[in-house]
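Hey, quick one: can you model this chain's 3D structure?
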Amino acid sequence: MHNAHAGINRRHFIATLAALGASAGAYAARTDHVLVLGDSLSAEYGLARGTGWVALLEQKFHAAKLPVTVTNASISGETTSGGRTRLPALLKQHQPSIVIIELGGNDALRGLPLDGTLGNLRAMTQAAQAAGATVLILGMQMPPNYGKKYAQDFEQLFTQVAKEFKTALVPAFLKGVADAPNPTALFQADRIHPTAEAQPIMLGNVWPVLRKLLTVR
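Sure thing. Here's the predicted structure for all 217 residues.
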């Protein structure tokens, strides 16, 4: 009886070590998958391939040898309604651990109702969280010529959703670009899309917030 009991204890000890080893292996193999759902600001509109802020983010991960995959699902001209429609399939396909939502600018440029934009941002955030992803919202701001109240109400949409769903937030994605001393210096000829020189600044606005959400360090 004593020998049998000792055998059971040894088997239990070995099984425990195996379980701990498996857990350690899983921890070591842990990775992050970042899904960027955006519009032309993230889709390299008017830029050479590989020079946009999302591509620079991928390069940053690679240089640091961090096991992070980045999927850029951004489309030029995308609205929050389009992003809301596309997101469920993207979540199913890529199963991201982090979803960056960079949408809303085209809603404002088209004069779409703010309550619709708010509802879409809420729906996308809720869908991503339900799929187990951490959400990072990139806030947008409109030029003052759209009217002070409209610009303020639009800007507050992103903060409102971030607070409601307790997500991470970059309050002003184009900080340092749209409010540069020369307001046109970092924009392409259309005065809407940032130049290649602006992309590191945009990444610089995102990175300090994003790095806190990463599982890997």
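One thing worth noting: The helical segments are 2-28, 53-63, 80-94, 105-109, 114-130, 148-165, 199-210.
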